[in-house]
Model the fold of this input.
Amino acid sequence: GSPKYRFLRQQGLRPSRHLPDALVIGVKKSGTRALLEFIRLHPDVRAAGCEVHFFDRHYAKGLHWYRRHMPYTIEGQITMEKSPSYFVTKEVPQRIHHMNPGTKLLVVVRDPVTRAISDYTQATSKKADMKKFEELAFINGSYEVVDTSWGPVKIGVYARHLERWLQYFPLSQLLFISGERLIVDPAFEIGRVQDFLGLKRVVTEKHFYFNSTKGFPCLFKSEARSTPHCLGKTKGRNHPYIDPAAIDRLREFYRPFNNKFYQMTGINFSWL
Ligand code: A3P
Done:
């Protein structure tokens, strides 16, 4: 290259694209966008803006394709990506392990019942004539039998999905972030994330303010914008009314799986 690029490369300053060091693998509707937007405030983190879906949808395109979808970084910067469907896709753990067995994995989790309702709310916003949540979550028209094959229900059985990851990665390589806590105390959760990634704690409470109209933490500034802003309108939607009896039945359904998940992770998320 030119003398300028040779100099920059020698200094470790010539930007280039790298495969990710860390991935936000899920869980859909738990606050994955918030997590990525918050951690990328860190100057040593660069993240792909869109969900790349390499390990689930585009795997046949190869790692060269994947790398071309990564942002430019200089030496010392961490490359990240988030595609929440990775957590629940069977083939993905093996594929990520094959790319780099040292990949750090971040998982945002939220009470599976509210997560299911959030997932359903998103689906109704894309499709007009959706059946009611209560009709989709159960079979035979009563609240007895939960339809575990329905996506929004199935995704929330975290213990089942986690089992598959633990066949390829030690628990120490996964960080679990509480979606609930990410809303009430974003600085706390981002502090844990920075420690896990081996980064200095640069992102702190100073970066966040609580917007009471939106009901969520928002940012004073980011790489993209220097003025205060919140996540988009599709983040923090109003949920429809759901029959409390249906909610109770779902809570009962998830209880043993949640307890298993607490056991596996060593963290009590205290979902009801
Ligand atoms: P709701 O829209 O159901 O409230 P994901 O980014 O994984 O799709 O998750 C979306 C969820 O992130 C939202 O679900 C919202 O509850 C949560 N969230 C967490 N922090 C947020 C923030 N600062 N702003 C908006 N939504 C946030």
Observations:
- The mean pLDDT is 96.
- The chain has one domain: 15-121+155-241.
